[in-house]
C-alpha cells in the first residue's frame, strides 16, 4: 500500500512560485493497475516523480510500506529506487551502447538478479532480439525492452510516464496489455500516467488531476461491485 | 548572416571551454613552431651574414709548420680559390680568478676569415705590439681597447696593447678546450696578434695553420700525403667544431620545432572535430528550425565551418604574436652557446604557411564534421538521433568480454563509437609523457653523462696539456712525479674498407695507468694491445667489432691498418682508442700530448710548471656541464608546464564533451538506482582506458623522444646517452595520473549536479 498525504510541490520560476501539486492525497494498492489522467500541466509527471523518489515534495508525506520516503536522504532515495521502483519512460531511455539483453541486465544486476534478464525479455516476447541494439529495434520493441528492464528488478512499484506517447495505437494497446499483465502480480503496483482517457477503461484505479489537484479518485470495478 | 554571426558568438561562449582548448592548442602549435623558427632561422641568417662579411674559410689545415712549397701546392689544387697563412698558439694570460687561455693567431691574408671589429682600432699589418681580443672574453674579464694585456707563452711574456675588441665567425662556438661542452668565456678566449709578437714569444715558425677558400676541393684527399709527418689536422665547415656547432644547433632546433608543433596541430584538429560535432548535436533543434525557415544545407555548413575558421584564426594569430616573446626566451639560452655580432630572430613565410595550414585544416575539419551532420531534410534533423552502435572488436575476445561488467561493456562500445574522442585523449596523454620524460630525462641524461665520464670512465683529478717542447724525459719525469697516465690525442684520416669517403676523426693513444677505466660493450677493460672505438663514432662510420680501419694519423707520415677489437659506450670524448703497445708495435711513435693525474694535492701549482701548457680539473669540467644543464632549465620547466596544461585541458575538455553526450544515460542510471559512486566509476572508465593506453604508448614514445632530444646535444666530440631515472619515470606517471584524476573529480562534480527530472524531459 502506498499512501500519499497532502503532497504539495512548488517550483520557483523566475520570481514566481508555481504550485505543480496543491495538496493531493491518495492511496495506491499493490496488484492494481492505476492510471493517472489529466491534461498537460496538471501535475501527473510530478506526482509520478514523487512516487518514484526522483523528486521531493515541498510538504506532505509519501508512505510506502509505512516509511515516509519524502524524508529520505538522497542516498536512501537511490536505494529506494534501486530496490523498489521500475520506471518506463515515454522515450524509452534505453542505453544506446548496450544490447537489449544488456539493457535489462544492467538494471537486474543492481539487485543481483542479472540472470533474470533473459527471462524478462522472453516474457515481453523479445527472446529473439536479445543481441540487438536500440537503433536496431522498432519503437514498440524498445518500449518492451524498457518494460522488461523495469520488471526484471521485481519492483514493488512500476511507474510508467506516457509509455505509449511515442507509439502508434496498435503498439500502444499491446504495451498496455503487458503492463496490465504485470499489475496482476499481487506484490506490484503499476501506475501509468497518460493524457489518453481511453486507458481509464482498463484501469483498476483512476486518479484524475487538474491544475495540481485531484478532481476524481475512482475504482470503477469496486464501484460496480458496491452498486451490485 | 548577421543574426547567424551573433548566434555563433553566443554559441562559442556557451561552449567556451571546448573552443578555448581548441584555441590554446592551435596557439601552442604556432608559438612553438614560429618561436623556434625565429631562433633557428635567425641563427642561420646571422651566422651566414657574419661568415660572408668576414669571408669565412671553407677548410682548415694545421701542421707542425708549412713551407712555401706546401702553400703553393695547395693553392694549385683544384677547387681552391684562396689560402691564408696563419700562426696559431695557445698562450696564457693572468686574471683575478687565475690563469686564462687565449688562442692567438697572427694574420696572414686578412681577406680570409677576417676579424669583425667591435670596438677600438681596425687591424693593420703596420701595427706592432698589439693584440685584438674576442668580445666575450674581454667582457668577462673587464678588458677594453687601449688597455695593456699580459700574455705568456713557452716561458716568454709580452705586454701588448689591446688594439681592438673583435669577433671571428670561425669561433662562433668557442669552448677553448676539447674537454668543455659550453663556452667558458672568462677562462678561454681567442684573438689576433701583430706578427712581431711571435718572435718576442720565442716562436720559431711563421705558419702552422692554413685557412682555405674552396669549393669541392681535393685538399681533404691529398693533404696527408702532401704534409707527411707534419700533418696535424684537417677540418671543413662540417667538422670544425666551433663552426659546425652553429649549423647543427639550428638544425636541432628546427627538428624540435617540427616535432612539438606536429603534436599540437594534431591535437588541435582532433579537438576541433569533436567540438563541432558536439555543437551540432546540441543545436539539432536550432538546425531544424533554420532549415524550416529556408536556410540551405550549404549555408548551414558554411555557418558551422566558420566556427573552425574563427577559432583557428584567433588561436594562430595569438600564437604568432606570442612566438616573438617565446623566441626571445629561447634566444637567451642560445646566446650562451653561440657568439654572433647580431642576434635577431627571423620569421619567414614558413611560419605563415604553418598558420595557413592550421586554419585550412581546421576549416576542412569543421566542414567535414558539419556536412555529414547537416545533410537531409528538416524533419530528419528533428528526429531523435539514435547512435548507430555496433559490436566492437574486443567482443571477439570472449575471455575479456564475458568477464566485463555491463558498465565496462557500455564504456568500451561508447569508445568505439567515439573514436576521435578516445584518440584525442590518448594522444594528449602520450604527448604529456613525451614532454615530461624529456623535461626530466634530459637533465638526468646530462647528469649521468657527467657522472659516467668524470667518475667512471675517467678517474682523474686534473688533465694536463703537455708543452709541445717537452723532451720525452721531461714528460716521463712528470708522469712519475704525479703517478699519472699519459695519452696522445691526434687527429687521423680514417678510411674504411669498401668506402671511398675520406673522414677525419680523433685518435687517443693510451698508456698504462689507472686514470682511464673504460669498458667495452662486453664489459671488458681496455687492453694496451687493443683498438677500440666509441659508439658515437662507430655509428657515424658504420663500423663494428672486427672491422678494419685505415688510419693516417697526424705526425706519422704514413698510414696504418687496425682491426677494431671492441666498441665503447662512452659519452666523451668520441674517439678511436688505441693501446700504446699496439700503436708502437704497428710502427707509430707514441708522443704524449696530455697527462691524466689521479689524486693531486694542489693542482693549481702545476700551472706554473714549464712542462705544462694548460691544466683543467675534472671538477671544472663537471661544473661546465652543470652550467650547460642549468641553461636549459627554463626550457625544461616550460616543457613540464605545457605537459600539465596539455593533459588537463584536453582531458577535461573530453570529459565535458562525453558528459554532455552521456547526460541522459547518466540520468537513466540514476533512475534505475545506480549509486553516485557507481556512476562515477562508469564515467571514469573512459579516462582509465585513455590513461592505460596512453601510458603504454606514451612511455616508449617518451623514451624515443628523449633519445631524439638527447641526440640534439650530441655531436662529433660527444654523445649523450638518454637516461631517465626510475624515480622520475614514476613521478611522470604520477603527474599524468593526478591530472587524469583531477579531470575525473571535476567530471564527478558535474554528474552530481545533474537535475534528474529536468534532464530526463530533454
Any overview of this molecule?
The complex is a heterodimer of chains A (228) and B (762). By secondary structure, chain A is of the alpha/beta class. Chain A has one domain: 3-Layer(aba) Sandwich (Rossmann fold). Chain A is built from seven helices and ten strands. In chain A, the strands form two sheets. Chain A has a six-stranded mixed beta sheet, sandwiched between helices. In chain A, strands 2-1-4-5 form a four-stranded antiparallel beta sheet, covered by helices on one side. In chain A, a hairpin with a 2-residue loop joins strand 1 and strand 2. The longest helix of chain A is centred in the last third of the chain and has 15 residues. Chain B has 22 helices and 21 strands. In chain B, strands 12, 13, 14, 15, 16, 17, 18, 19, 20 and 21 form a ten-stranded mixed beta sheet that branches. Chain B has a nine-stranded mixed beta sheet with strand order 4-8-5-9-3-2-10-1-11. In chain B, a hairpin with a 6-residue loop joins strand 13 and strand 14. The longest helix of chain B has 42 residues. The mean pLDDT of chain B is 88. The interface between A and B is medium-sized, with 31 and 28 residues.
- DSSP summary: helix tally of chain A: 7
Strand line-up across the major sheet of chain A: 6-7-8-3-9-10
SSE order of chain A, one letter for each helix or strand: EEEHEEHEHHHEHEEEH
Structural class of chain A: alpha/beta
Shape assignment of chain A: globular
Question: What is the top-level CATH class of chain A?
Answer: Alpha Beta
Q: How big a fraction of the residues of chain A is strand? A: 25-35%
Tally of strands of chain A: 10
Amino acid at each position: 500500500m502506498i499512501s500519499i498525504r497532502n503532497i504539495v510541490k512548488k517550483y520557483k520560476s523566475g520570481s514566481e512560485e508555481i504550485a505543480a501539486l496543491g495538496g493531493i492525497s491518495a492511496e495506491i494498492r499493490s496488484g492494481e493497475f492505476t492510471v493517472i489522467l489529466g491534461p498537460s500541466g496538471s501535475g501527473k509527471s510530478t506526482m509520478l516523480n514523487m512516487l518514484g523518489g526522483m523528486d521531493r515534495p515541498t510538504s506532505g508525506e509519501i508512505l510506502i510500506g509505512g516509511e515516509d520516503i519524502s524524508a529520505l536522504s538522497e542516498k536512501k532515495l537511490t536505494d529506494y529506487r534501486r530496490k523498489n521502483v521500475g520506471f518506463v519512460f515515454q522515450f524509452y531511455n534505453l542505453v544506446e551502447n548496450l544490447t537489449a539483453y544488456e539493457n535489462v541486465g544492467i538494471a537486474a544486476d543492481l539487485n543481483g538478479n542479472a540472470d533474470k534478464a533473459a527471462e524478462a525479455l522472453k516474457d515481453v516476447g523479445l527472446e529473439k532480439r536479445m543481441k540487438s541494439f536500440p537503433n536496431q529495434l522498432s519503437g514498440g520493441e524498445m518500449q518492451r525492452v524498457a518494460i522488461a528492464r523495469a520488471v526484471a528488478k521485481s519492483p514493488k512499484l512500476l511507474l510508467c510516464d506516457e509509455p505509449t506517447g511515442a507509439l502508434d495505437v496498435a503498439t500502444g494497446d499491446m504495451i498496455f496489455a503487458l503492463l496490465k499483465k504485470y499489475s496482476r502480480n499481487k506484490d506490484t503496483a503499476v501506475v501509468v500516467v497518460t493524457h489518453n482517457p481511453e486507458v481509464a477503461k482498463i484501469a483498476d484505479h483512476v486518479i484524475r488531476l487538474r491544475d495540481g489537484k485531484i478532481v476524481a479518485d475512482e475504482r470503477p470495478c469496486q464501484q460496480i461491485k458496491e452498486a451490485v | 548572416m548577421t543574426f547567424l554571426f551573433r548566434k555563433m558568438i553566443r554559441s562559442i561562449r556557451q561552449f567556451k571551454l571546448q573552443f578555448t582548448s581548441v584555441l590554446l592548442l592551435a596557439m601552442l602549435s604556432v608559438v612553438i613552431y614560429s618561436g623556434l623558427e625565429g631562433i633557428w632561422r635567425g641563427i642561420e641568417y646571422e651566422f651566414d651574414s657574419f661568415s660572408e662579411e668576414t669571408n669565412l674559410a671553407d677548410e682548415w689545415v694545421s701542421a707542425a709548420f708549412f713551407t712555401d712549397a706546401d702553400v703553393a701546392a695547395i693553392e694549385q689544387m683544384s677547387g681552391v680559390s684562396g689560402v691564408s697563412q696563419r700562426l696559431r698558439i695557445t698562450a696564457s694570460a693572468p686574471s683575478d680568478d687565475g690563469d686564462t687561455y687565449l688562442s692567438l693567431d697572427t694574420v696572414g691574408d686578412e681577406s680570409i676569415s677576417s676579424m669583425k671589429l667591435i670596438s677600438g682600432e681596425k687591424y693593420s699589418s703596420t701595427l706592432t705590439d698589439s693584440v685584438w681580443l674576442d668580445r666575450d672574453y674581454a667582457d668577462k674579464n673587464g678588458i677594453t681597447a687601449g688597455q695593456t694585456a699580459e700574455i705568456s707563452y713557452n716561458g716568454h711574456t709580452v705586454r701588448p696593447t689591446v688594439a681592438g675588441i673583435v669577433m671571428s665567425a670561425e669561433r662562433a662556438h668557442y669552448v677553448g678546450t676539447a674537454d668543455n661542452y659550453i663556452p667558458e668565456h672568462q677562462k678561454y678566449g681567442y684573438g689576433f696578434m701583430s706578427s712581431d709578437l711571435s718572435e718576442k714569444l720565442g716562436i720559431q715558425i711563421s705558419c702552422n695553420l692554413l685557412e682555405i677558400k674552396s669549393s669541392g676541393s681535393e685538399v681533404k684527399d691529398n693533404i696527408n700525403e702532401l704534409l707527411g709527418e707534419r700533418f696535424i689536422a684537417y677540418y671543413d665547415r662540417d667538422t670544425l667544431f666551433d663552426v659546425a656547432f652553429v649549423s647543427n644547433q639550428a638544425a636541432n632546433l628546427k627538428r624540435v620545432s617540427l616535432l612539438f608543433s606536429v603534436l599540437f596541430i594534431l591535437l588541435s584538429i582532433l579537438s576541433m572535430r569533436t567540438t563541432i560535432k558536439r555543437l551540432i548535436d546540441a543545436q539539432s533543434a536550432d538546425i531544424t528550425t533554420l532549415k524550416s525557415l529556408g536556410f540551405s544545407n550549404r549555408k548551414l555548413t558554411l555557418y558551422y565551418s566558420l566556427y573552425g575558421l574563427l577559432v583557428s584564426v584567433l588561436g594562430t594569430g595569438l600564437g604568432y604574436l606570442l612566438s616573438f616573446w617565446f623566441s626571445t626566451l629561447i634566444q637567451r639560452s642560445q646566446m650562451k652557446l653561440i657568439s654572433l655580432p647580431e642576434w635577431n630572430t627571423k620569421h619567414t613565410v614558413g611560419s605563415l604557411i604553418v598558420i595557413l595550414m592550421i586554419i585550412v585544416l581546421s576549416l576542412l575539419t569543421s566542414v567535414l564534421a558539419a556536412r555529414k551532420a547537416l545533410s537531409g531534410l528538416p524533419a530528419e534533423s528533428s528526429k531523435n538521433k539514435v547512435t548507430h552502435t555496433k559490436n566492437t572488436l574486443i567482443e571477439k575476445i570472449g575471455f575479456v568480454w564475458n568477464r566485463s561488467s555491463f558498465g565496462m561493456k557500455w564504456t568500451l562500445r561508447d569508445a568505439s563509437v567515439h573514436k576521435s574522442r578516445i584518440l584525442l585523449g590518448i594522444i594528449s596523454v602520450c604527448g604529456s609523457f613525451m614532454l615530461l620524460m624529456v623535461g626530466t630525462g634530459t637533465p638526468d641524461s646530462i647528469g649521468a653523462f657527467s657522472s659516467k665520464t668524470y667518475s667512471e670512465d675517467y678517474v682523474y683529478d686534473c688533465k694536463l696539456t703537455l708543452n709541445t717542447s717537452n723532451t720525452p724525459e721531461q714528460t716521463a719525469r712528470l708522469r712519475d712525479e704525479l703517478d699519472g697516465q699519459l695519452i696522445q690525442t691526434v687527429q687521423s684520416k680514417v678510411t674504411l674498407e669498401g668506402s671511398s669517403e675520406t673522414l677525419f676523426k680523433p685518435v687517443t693513444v693510451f698508456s698504462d695507468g689507472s686514470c682511464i677505466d673504460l669498458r667495452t660493450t662486453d664489459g671488458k677493460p681496455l687492453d694496451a694491445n687493443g683498438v677500440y672505438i666509441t659508439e658515437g663514432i662507430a655509428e657515424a662510420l658504420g663500423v663494428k667489432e672486427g672491422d678494419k680501419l685505415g688510419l693516417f694519423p697526424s705526425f706519422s707520415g704514413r698510414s696504418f691498418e687496425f682491426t677494431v677489437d671492441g666498441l665503447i659506450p662512452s659519452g666523451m670524448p668520441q674517439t678511436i682508442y688505441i693501446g700504446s703497445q699496439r700503436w708502437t708495435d704497428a710502427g707509430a711513435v707514441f708522443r704524449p700530448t696530455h697527462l691524466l693525474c689521479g689524486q693531486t694535492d694542489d693542482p693549481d701549482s702545476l700551472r706554473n710548471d714549464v712542462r705544462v701548457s694548460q691544466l683543467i680539473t675534472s671538477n671544472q669540467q663537471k661544473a661546465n656541464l652543470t652550467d650547460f644543464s642549468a641553461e636549459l632549465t627554463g626550457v625544461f620547466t616550460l616543457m613540464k608546464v605545457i605537459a600539465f596544461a596539455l593533459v588537463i585541458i584536453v582531458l577535461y575538455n573530453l570529459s565535458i564533451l562525453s558528459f554532455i553526450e552521456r547526460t541522459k544515460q547518466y540520468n537513466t542510471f540514476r533512475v534505475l538506482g545506480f549509486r553516485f559512486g557507481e556512476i562515477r566509476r562508469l564515467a571514469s572508465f573512459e579516462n582509465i582506458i585513455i590513461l592505460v593506453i596512453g601510458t603504454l604508448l606514451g612511455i616508449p614514445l617518451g623514451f624515443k623522444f628523449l633519445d631524439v632530444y638527447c641526440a640534439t646535444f650530441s655531436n662529433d666530440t660527444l654523445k649523450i646517452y638518454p637516461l631517465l631515472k626510475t624515480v622520475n619515470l614514476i613521478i611522470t606517471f604520477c603527474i599524468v595520473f593526478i591530472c587524469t584524476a583531477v579531470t575525473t573529480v571535476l567530471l564527478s562534480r558535474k554528474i552530481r549536479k545533474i537535475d534528474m527530472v529536468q534532464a530526463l524531459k530533454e
